[in-house]
Amino acid sequence: MAQSKPLSFPAKGATRQPLELSRTLHAPRATVFEAWISAKHVKRWFAPEPFTVPEATIETRVGGRFDLCMRSPQGEEHWVRGTFIEIVPDTRLVIDMTCTDAAGKALFGAYTQVRLSDALGGTRMDLVQRYAVLAAEAAWMVEGAPSGWSSALESLERQVVRMQVRAQPGAQAGARSVVHAEFHLERVCDSPVARVWQALTEPEAKAKWFAGTPGKWELLERRMDLRVGGCERLRGRWEGGVVSTFDAVYQDIVPNERLVYCYQMFLDERKLSVSLATLQLEPSGRGTRLKVAEQGAFLDGYDDAGSRERGTAQLLEALGASLRA
């Protein structure tokens, strides 16, 4: 996509170490991208609490404006005056920002890079900001940036959930809806059927690949009771405090051939979906052909827009890596 001539940053002023943050947001990349480039959405999240954003102007083009006002509860205002440097839809944004006081005095610069990628549970957002302090009295603002971003990203997490609810035709807060989806995936593993079956059904072997993003997800609970009518649960906390829960009940088990289970997915206490998953194993030369099919019902405003399929594909890659280890 279009890109302007790279800037030399920072041009002046005292610098600080870059701020690097990663967050898994439980929404498709397109939704997270929209939350960055739409003024009505930016006004809902782009400020640490208890600040608000009463005004915002966003021009989504290279050279376009990224301007917004952040207002404290006492009425003090600071402005972010930004310019889009690079825009790759649903993937990457680069924005050259300058924070000013209400009179327009430049306080510090923040060269901001945002990268979006698919992740288990939604979208991984990697953010890097490089700072230039332009006024001595603004040094504390830069030092407080990690805390401020932590608060803003919690607001962003809530905003992308709201956006998904409202994306449903006629949806309102508390409205009921169901979106149906299905997908089919296949992988050929170099390992024999018995070893692949072990990786799918033995707790210690499955724990090596069936989990959240390392370093971005904390295990809270894992249990597995492999029998028809038995249950499996995986529960963990993502950065920002959101807890995801996978609750499954086994419906059919044919050792080394077939595994069928129903599962529910929750974010905190909110039920996102109910799905039927079928895993089939077949010999393929010296290895194994693994077939995965899922039919899902996504509930009450949640439409994963393919992120479940992408997340499952990533898990299969992790499964393959565990078999090669």
Write down how many β-strands occur, each being a DSSP E stretch of 2 or more residues.
Answer: 15
Main β-sheet description: 8 strands, antiparallel
Radius of gyration from the alpha-carbon trace, in angstroms: 23 Å
- Give the overall average pLDDT: 87
Write the layout of secondary structure elements.
Elements: E1 14-15, E2 19-25, H1 29-37, H2 39-45, E3 52-58, E4 65-71, E5 77-88, E6 92-101, E7 106-119, E8 122-133, H3 139-143, H4 145-167, E9 178-189, H5 193-201, H6 203-206, E10 217-224, E11 231-238, E12 243-254, E13 258-267, E14 270-284, E15 287-299, H7 307-324
Antiparallel strand pairs: 1-8, 2-8, 3-4, 4-5, 5-6, 6-7, 7-8, 9-15, 10-11, 11-12, 12-13, 13-14, 14-15
Helix pairs in contact: 1-2
Concise summary:
The protein has 2 domains: 14-167, START domain (Alpha-D-Glucose-1,6-Bisphosphate, Chain A, domain 4, 2-Layer Sandwich), CATH 3.30.530.20; 178-324, 2-Layer Sandwich (Alpha-D-Glucose-1,6-Bisphosphate, Chain A, domain 4). It has 7 helices and 15 strands.
Q: Mind explaining what this structure looks like?
A:
- The chain is an alpha+beta fold and 325 residues long.
- It has two domains: 14-167, Alpha-D-Glucose-1,6-Bisphosphate, Chain A, domain 4 (2-Layer Sandwich); 178-324, Alpha-D-Glucose-1,6-Bisphosphate, Chain A, domain 4, CATH 3.30.530.20.
- Helices cover 23% and strands 46% of the residues.
- The chain has helices at 29-37, 39-45, 139-143, 145-167, 193-201, 203-206, 307-324, and strands at residues 14-15, 19-25, 52-58, 65-71, 77-88, 92-101, 106-119, 122-133, 178-189, 217-224, 231-238, 243-254, 258-267, 270-284, 287-299.
- A hairpin with a 4-residue loop joins β6 (92-101) and β7.
- α1 packs across α2 (39-45).
- The longest helix is centred in the middle third of the chain and has 23 residues, at 145-167.
- The radius of gyration is 23 Å and the shape is elongated.
- The model is unreliable at 1-15 and 169-173 (pLDDT under 50).
